[in-house]
Amino acid sequence: MLPTLAPVADADFEAMLSVRIEALRESLERLGRFNPDVARARLKSQFRPEWMRHLVVDGERVGYFTVEPRGGELRLHHLYLKPAMQGQGIGAWVLEQIKARGLPITLAALRESRANDFYLRHGFKVVEEQAFDIEYRWEVGA
Prior knowledge:
By secondary structure, the chain is an alpha+beta fold.
């Protein structure tokens, strides 16, 4: 069940915030850092519809991702799926679409998140460990 991509508009913010909270809640609670106000502020600070795409399956928005072009590389800011849609190959499909652009990719994943294993399985390497996040990089041809 592969998704289709749909553009993002300013009016989609609240729905996307809901997906973000649903996807991150368990990991943030495990770290004692769940705060809906912080989730809102972080998404708002990186809300750039021109870099974002909804992931749609059977007419339903099941997630989204954000890819920022940064001088010869790409920064994956968000890749969130509703928990019921995780583990079905959608995230792997998204990474393949991004990798096909042929540029290095950087991202940060929350410590204690299952996303860390996901990114390691898909060829990303740890480049820095921070208090709450782990920074990753994927190189073309790696």
